[in-house]
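#structure-requests
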Amino acid sequence: MPAALVQTFRAFAYNNAWANRRLHQACAELSQEQFEATRTSFFPSLQTTLNHVYVADLFYIDALEGGWLGPKVWEDHVPHPSVATLAPEQAAMDRRLIEVCNALTPELLDGDALVNRGARVQRERRDRLLMHLFQHQIHHRGQAHAMLSGTSVKPPQLDEFFSIAEAPLRAEEFNALGWSEATVWGATAK
């Protein structure tokens, strides 16, 4: 597995945290009633959709860390009922994923992670498990973005992936997160 691919997974982890932060900041402008309101999507509200992202992250990140939480994470579908409680917990989860990706080596990325599925153990290559996790997050954030479009709050832009030309536009957000372009891109930052 090439070292450059490891850096790509790291960048995906940072982008994931950035997108979650943007989405949670927008949702923080909603009332609790609006956050819980039934909307058209796979999960019927912003509250349940964003909590699903959090719980799925907990499930997979724990496995990537070598943990064994497994199916018990699914017992509470809405562990954080408000944006005020969800946002810091999701941010902490995002930092865990960044740490997982920052610790990757080509050998680790190519190696297996064990996923506790309850009645069975899933053995999955880390690169495939991470691709699954990132795709899952993007999918459900897209649903939340669409649901947010049905409110008075303008949905944040989530479809950019850290293009060089847009670095000045995100500098303030990166500063608030304690990041720089070099944090995300390492030695390849320009």
